[in-house]
Amino acid sequence: MPRIEFQDESAVVIIGSGAGGGTLAHELTTRGIKVVVLEAGKRQSTASFSQVPGAAFLQLTWLDARTQSGDWGVAKNFPTLPVWHCKTVGGTTVHWTAATPRFEPWELRARSTYGRIAGTSLIDWPISFDDLKPYYLLAERRLGVTRRNGVPGLPASNNFKVMYAGAKKLGYKRVHTGHMAINSRPYDGRASCIQQGFCVQGCKMGAKWSTLYTEIPRAEATGNLDLRIECTATRIEHGANGRVNAVVYRDAEGRVQRQKARVVCVAGNGIETPRLLLLSESSKFPQGLANSSGQVGRNYCHQIIGFVWGIFDKPVSSWRGATLAGVVEDEVRDDPSRGFAGGYRMELCTLDLPTFPLVGLPYGWGRDFASILENYRNMAGMLINGEDMPRADNRITLNNDVKDAYGLPVANVHVDEHPNDQAMRKHAQTQMSRMYEAVGAKRVVLGPVPPATHNTCSARMSADPREGVANAWGQTHDIKNLFISDGSALPTAGSANPTLTIVALALRQAEYVSRQMKAQSI
Amino acid sequence: MDELVTLNRRELLRTTTGLLTGWVVAGSPLTLIALGRAWAVDLTTLNSSEGAALMSVARTIAPHDKLDDAAYALVVQALDGDAAKDAKTHKTIREGLAELGTGFAASPENERVEALKKIEPSAFFQTIRLKTLQVLYSSPIAYAYFGYEGEAFSKGGYLFRGFNDLRWLPEVPVADSGPLPDRA
Q1: Is the N or the C terminus of chain A less surrounded, counting Cβ atoms within 10 Å?
Q2: pLDDT for residue B33
């Protein structure tokens, strides 16, 4: 029997246990609020994480079918895996690489900063950097972010030494081992990083922050959390008054269950969050929940991501060390003279040998393809992480031709790249190539656009209810006891890896939700 | 080397449809991890000549001249397993090999490349290519060959095992790096 009764109407139901859902669950339960978390995946632990890359991928990844369309490279290179995120307790904080930069103040004013750009649906955030800053400070302490609050940086790895030397040759100044949610010294009951690589397979040291072993167990310790694993939400129900009042889900045995709710918070990642809202259509809300604007699923962003590999005549052994611990931040600026709006980061990256030919290299075979692999030991790696432009028709929709295990339409991910995206990628690839060539690379290889990991903006916050799904607190414009609590709520993608901002927004939302509940407004 | 099934004659006579065997090349990194110099992979669905032809296709897709046949034999073993599980895959492989013809494995590399280019869009080629990429670089043989060290949690990570041992470029100033944790 669940600790919170199915008929109990007093609980907050959170769908998803990742950066948004896990953080929100911890915050609300600490304030004495009863919370049910529905998590579609299983529960792993630092002990159970597989150290075999292929097996770890299968252990953690959301593998249920999706389809895709549009002209983005992912559709061609990874037709069955448009996005790569987790289905496990802790969500994508289990496989993330823990880069935790902040958005820049001007990035929150995207529409005002960049001006009108044809073919985009840019908006300004409904909150300013000053609104967000206290929650960044809180989140950075919570996650133990390096180079903040006196926490030292991570030590430079071989891969970073190559990046650093190249960046300095080009005159870049803001180059360091990154703001990382990876312990550079023991912190918060967790050990420090032993530079084992394997961040993406789940950190067996627990040195990398994940809600799996921080927020979730702490929420459980309050006695107010009812975490239900292998439970997949299929529908959010509402009453005649238009307020949501229950979540229907499939449990581990595939049985249909129905949990009553006072408040529902959706945190299922940027694909499943809009899908669930669309699946919950009713006669009162024929376009899906919180979708009177027609904005649910639209404006999907995934950031400009792409690998660049430098091949040298001496060993780098890039797999040794924290995967993403290094960054060049000089291109995080708004400078239209570069030929595009928005900024990008260049971040350290590597892939383990089994994954590298599958994800890191463009389609190929034969002598040339094999010659890159022959140099695996002598290879350094980076990736671009840049702001992509929101577009109304880059969107998550229901694909009625393909059904999931429960007979429900799967999500289709449609992306047509904006010329700004392509100009930014080209600029970044050129700069990264120059960095490697400046320190003697004998060859530079540009990787493909990998399956999207930063799925955001698909149920965005907006000041104007016609332009988005939720208000400045992630509370949906249409339904006051329904909240967006994950990256879907970001109004624009920015150039920062999204997790820190998702956590900061969840911390802020938790204060609002508990205040509103206390005031009986929801 | 536990992926490589040890030869067991009685078992073979009962269950196998084909067999791939070979000798580990002297001086190869494989000699460090192999138990003995002989290796054998038994097949349960494909026959020996199909297995040999698939080895040749895999080697043409990912030509690493000094990488032992044993590494490629694992790709064939995985394909054999897929064929055993799925009749459609079996048919795709059988028909694809028939189209390449019996002389494929013996022909020079440039002719093999040309032959594969002609069938590149086919389900056969794409199946073999993907399986080659998935399996070839995942074995201990490949790890040894490419110098990849794999997981390090069981050995205490790379913190004191070379994560920062690169000496052909300048060290990063401490302000942009960070202190090494104390050795426990």
Answers
A1: N
A2: 55
Nearest CA in chain A to B153: A196
Of the pLDDT bands very low, low, confident and very high (cuts 50, 70, 90), residue A2 is: low
CB-based burial, A334-357: b 16+ in 10 Å, e otherwise: beeebebbbbbbbbbbbbbbbbbb
* CATH number corresponding to A149-209+304-386+417-451: 3.30.410
CB contact under 8 A, B157 and A356: no
Q: What is the least distance, in Å, from the CA of B106 to any CA of chain A?
A: 17
- Residues from chain A that touch B152, judged by Cβ atoms under 8 A, are 194, 196-198, 320
Residue A113: predicted pLDDT: 98
Would the CB atoms of A176 and B146 count as touching at under 8 Å?
A: no
> Residue B145: its chain A contacts at CB < 8 A?
none
Structure ipTM: 0.93
Q: How far is CA B90 from CA A275, A391, B14, in A?
A: 37, 44, 21
Q: Which two tokens stand for residue A468?
A: 């988005």
Q: How confident is the prediction for chain A on average, in pLDDT? A: 97
Does residue B183 belong to any structural domain of this protein? no
- Write phi, then psi, for A249 (nearest 5 degrees): -145, 165
Residues in chain B: 184
| Burial class for A169, CB neighbours closer than 10 Å (0-12, 13-18, 19+) | middle
| Distance from C-alpha of A354 to C-alpha of A201, rounded to nearest angstrom | 13
Q: What is the pTM of this model?
A: 0.95
Q: Which residue of A has its CA nearest to B135?
A: A354
Q: Per-residue confidence at B3, pLDDT binned at 50, 70, 90?
A: very low
pLDDT in the model for residue B7: 40
Contacts of A158 in chain B (CB under 8 A): 162-166
Inter-chain residue contact A197 with B178, CB threshold 8 Å: no
Instruction: Note down the domain range covering B149.
Output: 9-176
Alpha helix (H) ranges present in A80-185?
A: 110-114, 129-143, 158-169
Per-residue pLDDT for A1 more than 60?
no
Within 8 A by CB and 6+ apart from A336, the residues are none
Architecture per CATH, A1-48+82-96+101-145+210-300+391-412+455-522: 3-Layer(bba) Sandwich (3.50)
> How many CB atoms are located within 10 Å of the residue B113 CB?
17
Alpha-carbon distances, residue B4 vs A31, A66, B33, B40, B75 (angstroms): 57, 36, 12, 6, 11
A54 in contact with chain B, both atoms CB, cutoff 8 A: yes
CA angle B147, B153, B159 (to 5 degrees): 75
Residue spans of the domains in chain A: they are: 1-48+82-96+101-145+210-300+391-412+455-522, 149-209+304-386+417-451
Do A476 and A484 meet the contact criterion of CB atoms below 8 Å apart?
yes
Q: Which of A64-78, A303-317, A366-380, B104-118 has the lowest mean pLDDT?
A: A64-78
Distance from the Cα of B129 to chain A's closest Cα (Å) equals 8
Residues of chain B with Cβ-Cβ distance to A156 below 8 Å are 164, 171-172, 176-178
**Cβ distance of B172 and A320 shorter than 8 Å:** no
DSSP-assigned beta bridge partners for residue A7: none
Distances (CA, A) of A109 to A106, A124, B141: 5, 4, 53
What is the pLDDT averaged over residues A505-512? 98
Query: Do the bridges between strand A12-15 and strand A263-266 make them parallel or antiparallel, or are there none, so unpaired?
Result: parallel
Domain count, chain B: 1
